[in-house]
Amino acid sequence: MNITKTNIDALNAVVTVEVAKNDYADQVEKVLQNYRKNANIPGFRKGAVPMSLVQKQYGKAVLAEEVNKLIQEALNKFLVEEKLDILGNPLPKFSEELDLNADDFKFEFEIGLAPEFDVKLDGKNDLTYYKIVADDKLLDEQVARIQKQFGKMIAKVEIAEGDDIRGTFVNEEKGINKPAQITLDIFENKAVAKSFIGKKAGDVVAVPTKGLFNDDHKLMDYMGVGHDDVHGLDITVDFTIEEVTTTEPAELNQELFDKLFGAGNVSSVEEVKAKIKEDAEKTFAQQADQKFYNDTTEYLINAHQVELPAEFLKRWIQTVGETPLSAEQAEAEYAKSENGLRYQLIESKIITLNNLQVTFDDLKAYAGDIIRKQMAQFGQLDPSQEDVDNIVSRVMTNQEEVRRLSEQVMSERILNVFKDKLNAATKEVTYDEFIKAMYGEI
Fold it and tell me: What is the pLDDT of residues 2-34, one digit of tens each?
């Protein structure tokens, strides 16, 4: 057998596999002998079928199958031994119908080669890492929310300022049908807020969306409107009132503090705010990390002009799924995945250059941390190591879960590389300012 590679250009090549009769003949003979032993053909005892008949009936099918196996094994071995970094899978080139009466065969496969490039993480960039602080406004709102959460709910007939209103936003034309729990202070449009006063369960209030909130993005939360539609949306949505309640706020006393944080851990409103600030900023840091990761991904794709064997990949996309795609469908799929593929190549370089690895012990430790946090949410603040280890052992038997954990650990390590090497500017912002930055508004 002879295998050669011919480069078409830097990103495309053709691998030629030449198969001679002595490469496959023994295996074909062995398979046909097994067929002969087990064949049930009328007029012949089992095992006594003439080889010529077996050859005539099964010979070409066996030949095709064995040659195909031989080619695939040889091709895969060649790619590994030659250390060829390919994209997609080899595509067979068919110039004419295979002549199974021949002794020697030649097969050609197109391959798409990964591009050669360098990854640079130093130098000037416009990246910003947002450090989100919990400001006094947020802390006061959280304390008020806690008082309301643990307060006494009282049913009401008519709506007044400060009441809780449960109902549904509806606009059939825009496909809006969103249950919501609201208070009147969410509305920037004070005329809309005033129109609710005195209304009862069963009443319908017409709500104009233009200028309804201080931030149009809130239409996404309260009405389920998509981000592309929220800016300047000018329609009227009906809000059907279903229930009106008010809450008598819980008193900020030691009983409430103990209920929130455990007996004796907090003894003043100032300490409550300090705990809220600590917990909130941990959560905010995760959100800031995710934005920085996303921003860095986009930056790296734009900063590294990674060429791809586009035409090869489009042809490969046509064949890779269960159902073959048309050229137009493959073009659309390629357009959607092109930047993602570029980033995968960049990320792979970063992992190699920084020797990033994830061991089984790393995964166990990471899973243990997640499990402790989850148990804490359900009041198990100090689980035994044995209990945690037992859960970790069960998790690690799930291959899909192990894959997901591996990706999370590697993403954290890549993020740390980004933070360490990209020298991004740090900007301290409130959570409201961060939300605006998420949508490119500051």
Answer: 999 999 999 999 999 999 999 999 998 898 888
Which residue type, as a one-letter code, is found at position 393?
S
Token pair for residue 7?
């480069």
The predicted pLDDT at position 228 comes to 85
Helices (H), 82-178: 136-149
pLDDT, tens digit, 9 for 90 and up, residues 281-312: 999 999 999 999 999 999 999 999 899 999 99
Residues in the chain: 442
Of 37, 2, 40, 39, whose CA–CA distance to 23 is shortest? 2
Mapping DSSP to helix (H, G, I), strand (E, B) and coil, where does residue 426 land?
strand
Whether residue 62 contacts residue 28, with contact meaning beta carbons closer than 8 Å, is answered with yes
Q: Say if residues 148 and 224 touch (Cβ distance below 8 Å).
A: no
Task: Look up residue 224 and give its amino acid.
Answer: G
Burial label for 80, CB within 10 Å (0-12, 13-18, 19+), is exposed
Give the SS3 label for residue 251: coil
